[in-house]
Design a protein that fits this description.
55 residues; mainly alpha; 55% helix
Length: 55
């Protein structure tokens, strides 16, 4: 999510169904009280969990 990938793009990387990615994304957002992916990305960077441009 922090790298701006869609559910479909995330599901392509490891062997995971898109529906599984969607479920996990919803749970992460709910667990941290975030309303959307933009807030999730902001949360990740503000908490030092990743850095922009890092692969």
């Amino acid at each position: 999510m922090a790298r701006g990938l869609s559910n479909r793009e995330i599901a392509r990387q490891p062997v995971v169904e898109e529906s599984t990615v969607r479920t996990h994304a919803k749970r992460v957002l709910a667990e941290h009280g975030l309303r959307d992916r933009i807030q999730a990305v902001t949360f990740v960077y503000e908490n030092g969990l990743d850095e922009p441009g890092k692969t």
